[in-house]
Design goal:
Elements lengths: L8 H5 L8 H22 L4 H8 L3 H8 L8 H15 L3
Length: about 90
């Protein structure tokens, strides 16, 4: 004998409640930032070492970014890089 309660057809057709997957959202945000930053680096007159120095990050982080190793960079690091390069490209 089963102790499970019987389910009617309506309950079985309802999708399970959704909860936001923060890891996916975080990854999407980092991916967007990575694309923006790599384009900015391409048009910047600054070298990669100079960008890393101004952003206060090790050169390895720039290498990771350009190699697409997004898991090595946090959102804060990416935002710092973007601010650094945006500041350089913004006319006075």
């Amino acid at each position: 004998m089963s102790t499970a309660s019987p389910r009617n057809g309506a309950e079985q057709l309802e999708p399970p409640p959704r909860c936001p997957d923060l890891d996916v959202r975080d990854l999407e945000q980092r991916t967007r930032l990575m694309r923006i930053i790599t384009r900015l680096i391409a048009v910047s007159d600054l070298g990669n070492r100079e960008i890393a120095r101004r952003a206060g990050l090790p050169m390895q982080k720039i290498s990771d970014l350009l190699a697409g190793r997004l898991e090595q960079l946090s959102i804060d690091e990416l935002q710092s890089l973007r601010r650094t390069i945006d500041h350089e490209l913004t006319p006075p």
